[in-house]
Amino acid sequence: MTIKYITLLGAMMALSLQTYAQFTADALRFSQIDQSSSARFKGIGGAQTAVGGDMSSLSGNPAGIGLFTRSEFSLTPELNSYSDKATYFNNESIGKKDRLNLSQIGVVFRAPTYRRAGQDTENGWLSVNFGIGFNRSHDLGNSFTFGGVNPSSSITDFYADQANLSGLNPSALIDDYNDFGDNAVAAGAYENYLIGYDSQDGYYPEPDLNSMQRLTDNRKGSQNEFNFAVGANYSNKLYIGASLALTSLNYRSESIFTESGYNPFQENDYRTNFTQIQDTKGSGVNGKLGVIYKAAPFLRIGASYQTPTWYTIDDDYSHEMSTQFGASRIDSQFFSPQEVYSSSYKVRTPSRINTGLVLLSKFGFISTDVEFVNYGGINFTSATGDDLNEVRDDNNIVRDRYANAINYRIGAEVKLDNIYARGGFGQLGNPYKDKENENYQNTTISGGLGYRVSNYFIDLTYQNISYKTSYTPYSVDGIDSPVASTKSNTSNMFLTFGVRF
What we know:
Number of strands: 20
Order of helices and strands: HHHEEEEHHHEEEEEEEEEEEHEEEEE
CATH class: Mainly Beta
Helix content: 10-25%
Number of helices: 7
CATH topology: Porin
Radius of gyration: 27 Å
CATH architecture: Beta Barrel
Distance between the termini: 50 Å
Strand order of the largest sheet: 1-2-3-7-8-9-10-13-14-16-17-18-19-20
Number of domains: 1
Structural class: mainly beta
Shape: elongated
Largest sheet: 14 strands, antiparallel, barrel
């Protein structure tokens, strides 16, 4: 994380989600994963810790691998549909986006232990099963837009603040940018005739208030895992398991902030665009341990522990500015060249502890999960051995902002001959110390059907995820920052095909 990059993102990045540094917001985003991957366990709200016997056990509680009585292969595609309603200065906007992805593909091989003829087949270690699979642990896609007339400020107020912070006159500001690449935003705004300069008062915004502002952001990407798991069955009562996951993330955000209005200093209408692109790629590793115990014929209890995920992340951020003057025609245009800032860092996401129980009957089951996550345990380290001050600042932000959270999930499955009906509910706990901040505290509702015949099965699940977020396009010293309130709704469809062999 270079100092220049931290300074720019901490001060400017429009998608900072009310954070001081973009890295801390990204670290929280990358910490909120989903351990269920098949349509069946999605259908019961992800309440899987004590259930087992499903391909989701590869990414959830690996002890569930021990419950397989046959080898199995399954594949789950998913369809994601995003919808966001944003309110900005009493003006509502809606953004929508659809995407087809792969949720999981995996195989479990059952390996019964050797038994001599006449030996007891109901006690002792009965099988040691192995599994390998891919799952999409977190969908990072989204699309939103908001806009309205801002009576209080202009983005050029922010540009003027940045120019004044430099302490340089216009010629020195431009020279400093040309020589070192610093002050790119302030220099670009001055060269685009968006801010002016007075030797007594410094830089000032040129446009009038009541400008029309609009931000459009398209996001895509995901976090994925390749899991290698082993699970053992002891006397059909105790199941233990462990897994190793090789993780990856790929995230891209493209945003365009547009402002249009009247510039009295240029005696003309103007329209300016500020475009930002963030590309983040990373790889990491984590491990999982789990246990399931059959306490009674009608009751199983389970617990699992997932270690932190240790990521190494490469981040590229770029921005460019363009402005045109003229109402019915283009009288003049100005462009600031694209600036690209690259950084690398390491981040440790939180560990997770899951506990669960399932009540069983011949008609189905009811399952509940409680998950504990310490988001305050997010920790940054330098990938290059330098930038230690910036790393320390990011870790201090994490400690000040994030806290422990408890996630709840409950689900049920009803068996109707060869048909299975499922429903589930989940609540993601608030990761912030400030409990009035509801960003990323989401609610999940799901339902689905399954059909099993002979060695084949098919499951279909619908899942709805809703949450709220707040976006601050820019901040101005001494003026209330403009804020867009967004309600996000994601509808997902999962279809699992499987075969036992």
